[in-house]
């Protein structure tokens, strides 16, 4: 046998393959080149728009948002405050008062109580998939657009889930822990191959469907349950009820959003429907599983193991947690159980995912702040006009967020009728509508008047003029 390669050479090999270099990594769609194509060049070279000159814009970034987003905001000249953790409510209220945009991940709760203090806030960027941490309706009603990254970390979650399926099946967590603690325990009883076993996926969206393909490549049979009829990939089969999925799966994995319907969707009755000796994986949201019921099912041996990445409450920052900590409820019980793998909400935590999310959400926030384009907003009408050219003089862009009631366009177009409307587009979503219009032939006084007149309309939620 040849002698082992020195570590220094191994790390060089890693650099070459690009494994530790975010720039060279293979990313999920949309790719880095996609972003390079669409990213701030258009924004940067466009006309500088006010009343926010870029340097006046304040952005608060919490929860260690990726450097790629910081780079985008720095390129724009925005004032950025960056914190690695989320904030307790009172500190958040203080900080949110004068920022124009905030970037968060899954832990920062932007409730009505917090948002009502955010007098200058026009946009929220969730640097993740889930948006359940934001009061989306309150935000929309107050003219605050919310953006997320709908699929940049899906692959990372799917890959982690595959690792967990095999780990549960081989009791990998326990064997690892035993050896770390000085015990050699070579055993094969109740350890299985995953080939030929059935994986039940609850929620066949971006993550669930990606996982389906990976699981089939391992030789697993895949069933899935979703509230929507979704085209099956490969040989997977959609079942018509959650019960059917639970009755027929060796592994059940959850990939649904947090909604009132998914709250505690796996509790005692559902656990009872699972096969004896089956496994449960929750990488979705902590509220989806009734943890005391799961603990009971594991204790009595109904289930042979579980992986939990998400908890009903989670600590704000990395570091030690206390036994019986409120922020990790039921952790003391979970820790004592066999074949239970606990992870600190890392489903989407890879270099590739975080870098792609930073670029994606950083770009859409910049587009919205600088140009008013709301494409990708999750709570808000999606409207865009092409950027104003640098050589266009005396042009003003109107961003008018208003109540979705009859008569608004008549009133607005009466106000605009003295000017040449170069282009105009509007759309509505629920109670809120958003109109973008570029008008030409306006001077400084016209702009002031337009702003005052639009703000004075009874339908006005928020008016921004960019010029
Ligand atoms: N652990 C982690 O770090 C991460 C967790 N997540 C969580 O995973 C969730 C799913 O992510 P994606 O697949 O991207 O979302 P998605 O929106 O693409 O798919 C969710 C699917 O669940 C289905 N669904 C909704 N309610 C349902 C119900 N009551 N019963 C059955 N199906 C239902 C939807 O129709 C949809 O097909 C996110 O909402 C987020 O909460 C996402 C990324 C990372
Ligand atoms: O990485 C994070 O902070 C949150 C990941 C997540 O749960 C999501 O994207 O919804």
UniProtKB/TrEMBL annotation:
Known EC number: 1.1.1.399, 1.1.1.95
Record keyword 4Fe-4S present: no
Alphabetized UniProt keyword annotations: Amino-acid biosynthesis, NAD, Oxidoreductase, Phosphoprotein, Serine biosynthesis
Entry-linked PROSITE patterns: ACT (PS51671), D_2_HYDROXYACID_DH_1 (PS00065), D_2_HYDROXYACID_DH_2 (PS00670), D_2_HYDROXYACID_DH_3 (PS00671)
Reactions catalysed: (R)-2-hydroxyglutarate + NAD(+) = 2-oxoglutarate + NADH + H(+); (2R)-3-phosphoglycerate + NAD(+) = 3-phosphooxypyruvate + NADH + H(+)
Pfam families, alphabetized: 2-Hacid_dh (PF00389), 2-Hacid_dh_C (PF02826)
Chain intervals with Polar residues compositional bias: 18-35
GO biological process per UniProt: L-serine biosynthetic process
Domain of life: Eukaryota
Enzyme type, top EC level: oxidoreductase
Biochemical pathway: Amino-acid biosynthesis; L-serine biosynthesis; L-serine from 3-phospho-D-glycerate: step 1/3
Region (Disordered): 18-39
Reported function: Catalyzes the reversible oxidation of 3-phospho-D-glycerate to 3-phosphonooxypyruvate, the first step of the phosphorylated L-serine biosynthesis pathway. Also catalyzes the reversible oxidation of 2-hydroxyglutarate to 2-oxoglutarate.
Protein name in the entry: 2-oxoglutarate reductase
Native species: Pichia californica
Gene for this chain: SER3
């Amino acid at each position: 046998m040849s002698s082992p390669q020195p570590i220094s050479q191994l790390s060089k090999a890693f650099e070459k393959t690009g494994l530790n270099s975010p720039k060279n990594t293979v990313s999920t769609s949309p790719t880095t080149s996609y972003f390079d194509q669409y990213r701030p060049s258009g924004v940067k070279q466009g006309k500088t728009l006010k009343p926010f000159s870029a340097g006046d814009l304040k952005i608060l970034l919490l929860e260690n948002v990726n450097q790629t987003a910081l780079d985008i905001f720095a390129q724009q000249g925005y004032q950025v405050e960056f914190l690695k953790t989320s904030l307790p409510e009172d500190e958040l209220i203080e900080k949110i008062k004068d920022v124009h945009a905030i970037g968060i991940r899954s832990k920062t709760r932007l409730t009505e109580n917090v948002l009502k203090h955010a007098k200058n806030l026009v946009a929220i960027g969730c640097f993740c998939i889930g948006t359940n941490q934001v009061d989306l309706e309150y935000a929309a009603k107050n003219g605050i657009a919310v953006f997320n990254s709908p699929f940049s970390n899906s692959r990372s979650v799917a890959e982690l889930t595959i690792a967990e399926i095999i780990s549960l099946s081989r009791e990998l967590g326990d064997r690892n822990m035993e050896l770390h603690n000085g015990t050699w325990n070579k055993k094969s009883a109740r350890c299985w191959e995953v080939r030929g076993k059935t994986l039940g996926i609850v929620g066949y969206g971006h993550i669930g469907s990606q996982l389906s393909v990976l699981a089939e490549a391992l030789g697993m049979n895949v069933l899935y349950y979703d509230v929507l009829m979704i085209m099956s990939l490969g040989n997977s089969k959609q079942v018509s009820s959650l019960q059917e999925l639970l009755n027929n799966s060796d592994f059940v994995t959850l990939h649904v959003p947090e909604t009132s319907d998914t709250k505690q969707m796996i509790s005692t009755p559902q656990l009872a429907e699972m096969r004896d000796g089956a496994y449960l994986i929750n990488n979705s949201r902590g509220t989806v599983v009734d943890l005391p019921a799961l603990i009971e099912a594991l204790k009595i041996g109904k289930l042979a193991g579980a992986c939990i990445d998400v908890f009903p409450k989670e600590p704000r920052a990395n570091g030690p947690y206390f036994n019986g900590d409120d922020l990790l409820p039921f952790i003391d019980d979970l820790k004592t159980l066999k074949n239970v793998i606990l992870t600190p909400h890392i489903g989407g935590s890879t270099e590739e995912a975080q870098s792609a999310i930073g670029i994606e959400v950083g770009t859409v926030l910049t587009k919205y702040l600088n140009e008013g384009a709301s494409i990708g907003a999750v709570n808000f009408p999606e409207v865009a006009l092409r950027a104003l050219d640098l050589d266009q003089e005396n042009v003003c862009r109107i961003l008018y967020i208003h109540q979705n009631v009859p008569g608004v366009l008549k009133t607005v177009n009466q106000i605009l009728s003295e000017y040449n409307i170069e282009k105009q587009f509007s759309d509505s979503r629920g109670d809120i509508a958003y109109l973008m219009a570029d008008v030409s032939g306006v001077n400084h006084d016209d702009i002031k008047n337009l702003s005052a007149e639009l703000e004075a309309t009874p339908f006005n939620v928020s008016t921004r003029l960019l010029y």
